[in-house]
């Protein structure tokens, strides 16, 4: 007997209700992860400027690892959700087991590479002296516990592919709460705990992530019975890996491309002074919260579309796509109106400097005008991956970031200043959102013609 994959949960029932039911736990989990990261930054910031600089140096490298894990997790989720729709229980278990073996292999390579390159890599990034020592202290712990980061990301995506977003949402929220509790205890040495400084932040992260690993693996083994401990031909396992990697690698690269785009734009804004960079940074953090429903919606479209595509329910696929876009339009318009109306008071909560507040408010009045279309782009990219078109999805992000956003930012900065840079971001989504919509429609039509 194999847990809940006997029945694909998402191939029947009211579509809008199902999407909302899937999205709400995702929002809980996403909020948890945002708070998780903010807690690390806040508490390490209390140690001093050098320690804060050290943890800032770790962000790009940590982001690369997360991007690789996210790509593999997405590939796994897409493949498994379709097989769940087909109703093939054994194949779901086989793919689940193969994906976790793949993640262990990738994890081992990343750990060895990471531990061997800490000093040269971070020296290249510009860390030196006491800051480099702090970076080494943090990354030695983080790399050693990397399995706690990579495996749960893939495990949670497998659980979502089954149509259960509640369990991963709760897991992520519990991890965030654990991190918030452990951070001050281990960083500052409260009560019986030793004062470990920046190393304590790394240990708190690893312990918090360990909870997600234990619970995710427990759910897959005990509740879903999806791990098969039997001899497996290496050739058959490699076939599974190829399917996952075909979708995973392009998405990993795109995940890495996004911070590169943000880095280029930060460089452009730096020419206007620190207030422009600070304002952009704060506005980006506000945006994470503002877009949490739209981001959750984009993620849950994967299992919904995948299960229905696997079950050959193309009308539900089409209706799910339309419903997702309607939700994105409604949410986008509401968020844009709210942020536009309260831009200055919201900005003032995060900073008191008049120039920084003005920059944040400018961002919140311009960029949110495109949030509805940003949602359509995200939903479209998810669906294209489910249709096994990862390169189409990647092309849309490349167009948005490198062909429209960055060149327009350079032009915008030249002619309109900071306002031009923010307008460039909005325009990039206003163009690529409709492009994603048209491409998904084309793939849907091709599926109908082929069925």
From the structure above, extract its key features:
globular, single chain, 451 residues, mainly alpha
Note down, in words, how this protein is organized.
- The structure is a single chain.
- The protein has 451 residues and is mostly helical.
- It folds into 2 domains: 220 residues, no CATH class; 197 residues, no CATH class.
- The protein is built from 16 helices and no strands.
- The protein is globular.
Topology, element by element:
Elements: H1 15-47, H2 49-86, H3 89-124, H4 129-144, H5 147-161, H6 166-188, H7 198-223, H8 234-270, H9 274-290, H10 292-310, H11 314-341, H12 343-350, H13 354-366, H14 371-386, H15 390-416, H16 418-450
Helix pairs in contact: 1-2, 1-6, 1-10, 2-3, 2-4, 2-5, 2-8, 2-10, 3-4, 3-5, 3-8, 4-7, 5-7, 6-7, 8-9, 8-15, 9-13, 10-11, 10-14, 11-13, 11-14, 12-13, 13-16, 14-15, 14-16, 15-16
């Amino acid at each position: 007997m194999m847990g809940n994959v006997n029945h694909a949960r998402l191939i029947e029932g009211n579509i809008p209700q199902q999407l909302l039911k899937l999205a709400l736990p995702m929002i809980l989990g996403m909020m948890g992860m945002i708070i998780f990261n903010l807690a690390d930054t806040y508490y390490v910031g209390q140690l001093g400027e050098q320690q804060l600089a050290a943890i800032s140096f770790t962000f790009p490298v940590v982001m690369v690892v997360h991007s690789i894990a996210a790509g593999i997790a997405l590939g796994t989720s897409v493949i498994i959700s379709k097989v769940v729709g087909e109703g093939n229980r054994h194949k779901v278990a086989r793919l689940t087991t193969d994906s976790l073996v793949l993640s262990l292999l990738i994890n081992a390579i990343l750990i060895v590479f990471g531990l061997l390159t800490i000093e040269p890599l971070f020296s290249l990034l510009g860390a030196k002296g006491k800051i480099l020592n702090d970076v080494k202290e943090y990354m030695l712990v983080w790399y050693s516990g990397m399995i706690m980061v990579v495996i749960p990301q893939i495990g949670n995506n497998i659980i979502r592919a089954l149509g259960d977003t509640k369990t991963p949402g709760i897991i992520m929220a519990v991890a965030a709460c654990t991190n918030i509790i452990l951070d001050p205890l281990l960083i500052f040495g409260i009560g019986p705990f030793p004062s470990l400084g920046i190393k304590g932040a790394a240990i708190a992260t690893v312990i918090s992530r360990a909870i997600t690993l234990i619970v995710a693996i427990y759910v897959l083994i005990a509740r879903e019975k999806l791990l098969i401990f039997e001899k497996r031909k290496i050739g058959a396992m490699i076939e599974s890996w190829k399917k996952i990697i075909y979708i995973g690698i392009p998405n990993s690269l795109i995940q890495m491309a996004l911070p590169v785009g943000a880095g280029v734009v930060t460089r452009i804004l730096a020419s206007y002074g620190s207030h422009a960079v600070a304002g952009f940074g704060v506005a980006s953090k506000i945006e994470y919260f503002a877009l949490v429903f739209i981001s959750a919606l984009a993620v849950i479209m994967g299992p919904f579309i995948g299960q229905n595509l696997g079950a050959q329910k193309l009308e539900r696929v089409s209706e799910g796509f339309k419903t997702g876009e309607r939700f994105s339009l409604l949410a986008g318009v509401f968020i844009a109106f709210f942020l536009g109306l309260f831009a200055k008071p919201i900005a003032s909560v995060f900073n008191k400097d008049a120039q920084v507040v003005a920059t944040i408010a400018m961002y919140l009045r311009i960029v949110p005008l495109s949030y509805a279309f940003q949602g359509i782009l995200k939903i479209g990219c998810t669906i294209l991956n489910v249709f096994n078109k990862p390169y189409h999805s990647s092309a849309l992000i490349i167009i948005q970031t490198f062909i429209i956003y960055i060149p327009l930012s350079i032009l915008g900065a030249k002619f309109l200043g900071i306002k031009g840079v923010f307008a460039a971001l909005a325009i990039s989504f206003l163009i690529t959102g409709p492009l994603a919509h048209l491409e998904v429609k084309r793939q849907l039509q091709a599926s109908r013609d082929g069925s």
